[in-house]
Amino acid sequence: MIAAYPHQPLTPQQYFEWEAQQELRYEYFDGDVFAMTGGSLPHADIALNIASILRSHLRGRCKVRNSDAKVGITDDGPFIYPDVSVTCDERDRTAQKFSRYPCLIVEVISPSTEAYDRGGKFGLYRKLETLKEYVLVGSATKTIDIFRRDDEGGWMFIPYGEGADIALVSVGIEVSMDDIYEDVILDASEV
User: Fold this and answer.
1) What is the model's pTM?
2) How far apart are CA 170 and CA 88, in angstroms?
């Protein structure tokens, strides 16, 4: 991410008003905004596959949102754009600016984003009390890692390899690795 707004720190309301006038999307952290860069075609294809699978399964019960929808860690930020988020919480049903109570967040990772997605971003997402699963999906290799919150609030790590069926307990669905990577051409140069 690159700092895009070098002026005075913005309040959350100023951020929403300012971002609505921008061509790019910006994440918000403690008054500062950061431009979001575009992903690769494999990244976009994987995210679309996941969102489509989830939407089909959860239609009428939960909101499945793509990378154009923000998640607010608190009502005052940070505000982050995950690749896919799912909220089944009634408080998010009529939300207009951001979701606040997701149960599932999916990030499609690349070699350049993996450290942040596993570290700093996951650290922020763990503050969401409603979050039950955080899923990292490889865009250079067919790998999926799930971090699942247990009953005591700890996080279990569950890695999946090629050909596996992936259990998304938070939304009661099992998804095949083949469906997630359907029609995706992985970029071998990113490995």
Assistant:
1) 0.92
2) 10
